[in-house]
Amino acid sequence: MAEHSTVSTSAVRPTEPARQVIATFDNYADARVAIVGRDLEYVEQVLGRLNYGGAALRGAGSGALVGALIGWIFGLFDWIQPLISTVVLAGYGLIFGAIVGALIGLLMHALQGGRRDFHSVSGLLPKYYDVVADVEASDRALQILTSDNRRE
C-alpha cells in the first residue's frame, strides 16, 4: 500500500465533491471505498482446442438464440392468436436458427484452416487499484485502512 496526498477535482462533474486517492493496492481484495483500476492490460486466456463439434455447438447456440428472437418478433404481429403464433414461430425460429448456426459454425471453422482452432476468454485486467474517497472523508478512510481493526 502506498499513500498519496493529491487532491483532484472533476471537470466532468463539477457538482460532485473532490475526491482524493488515499491508497494504492496491488490486488482488488485489499482495496475499499471507491476502487479505480489503473494500467489496464488486455488478457486472453486459452481454455482449450476448438474442434468441429465445439464449433457446431457454439454456432447452434448463437443461431438458436437469434432464430427464436426473430420468430418471437414475427409472432407478435399476429393480432388474432398472438400467444399461440408467438410461441410456435419462436420454436420454429429456434430450431431453424440452431441448424443454420451449426452449419455456419462448421463452415467458418473449416475455412480458418486451424489458424484459430482454440476457444478463449478475454478481458481487461488492471495492474493497480486506487482507493478513492471524498476529500472530507479521506483522512478518516486512511485512518481506517491503516489501522489493524478494519471493521467499521
What would you say about this model in short?
The chain is of the alpha+beta class. It has three helices and four strands.
Shape: elongated
Indicate the structural class.
alpha+beta
The secondary-structure element order is: EEEHHEH
Helix content: 40-55%
Record field, number of beta strands: 4
Q: Can you give a write-up of this model?
A:
By secondary structure, the chain is α+β, with helices and mostly antiparallel strands. The two termini are 19 Å apart. The protein has helices at 52-75, 82-112, 135-146; strands at residues 7-8, 19-25, 34-49, 118-134. The radius of gyration is 26 Å and the shape is elongated. Helix 1 runs antiparallel to helix 2. The chain has two domains: 7-41 and 125-146, no CATH class; 51-116. A four-stranded antiparallel beta sheet has the order 1-2-4-3.
Record keyword descriptors for this entry:
single chain; 152 residues; alpha+beta; 4-stranded antiparallel sheet; 3 helices; elongated
List the helices and strands and how they pair.
Elements: E1 7-8, E2 19-25, E3 34-49, H1 52-75, H2 82-112, E4 118-134, H3 135-146
Antiparallel strand pairs: 1-2, 2-4, 3-4
